[in-house]
């Protein structure tokens, strides 16, 4: 990528001070932007840029270059950030120049094409969910869980975009299609954490994964309540809000809600348990090192659409997912079957957790 490949999303205090100096701004003015999922601070190769994600009056999502040290609008690294953000264009706030974000070529790796489309799908879901809120078309399903108008709107928006990939798309909101053996498939959870969304209690998320041979090869999870984004792909690594993510050992465990009629177990391998109500985000918290492990071993299980996106991020971040018998988790093109597993930074940590949870 030449000089354009050396710019990166700022991830440290040193990056912040370098960018502030190049932009002629106070570090105090930029520091909050490093914590905001709706902003990116790029630095490198003697240049810096401050971006914000916005919608135009016409409803087009764009990455706006708010401040820059030099002309950077067309740089590859900046366009890559915009693509991962699900933006259609980049706009220079100073000059008004607009650069379109091009899709990967048709002969690009499938994981790369998936990543671009999944980010666009998440953007469409953001809009669809917001428009469907309070529409009055919510209902209770036979199992007692809620089906919201936002669920259907999210599915329709995501499925339309992901169809461009040319592979079978499965979704929580539709009956399964048959996937030919050894063929790749995409699985969506257009709105994970529906209960959270209905209650207005974060997080709730969009999740998408590209699966082949029983493994998530690429995935994207977007916390729609905050804008946080986790992405991962084979041989490309894992990222949280544009910054490389890696697993790390820890004593915090994330888990689904308590089993019916029982309390949340704190295994001997953990010091505390966090319950978010959004499984897709939970697995990503293990992937980025915020939590040491996740499990649903003492529960009925979860579905492939809930976890496939996060599992791609977890694997790309160096993490491990093992079934209750200690075998590597294998994903099937079946959104009805429940699966149980433990996710952790290492195989040893996952096995210790499995041994510590009575089932």
Automatic annotation (TrEMBL):
- Membrane-crossing segments per the record: none
Superkingdom of the organism of origin: Bacteria
* Signal peptide range in chain numbering: none
Q: Mind telling me which InterPro entries this protein's record contains?
A: Inositol_monoP_metal-BS, Inositol_monophosphatase-like
Keywords from the UniProt entry: Hydrolase, Magnesium, Metal-binding
Fetch the PROSITE patterns from UniProt: IMP_1
Q: What is this protein called?
A: Inositol monophosphatase
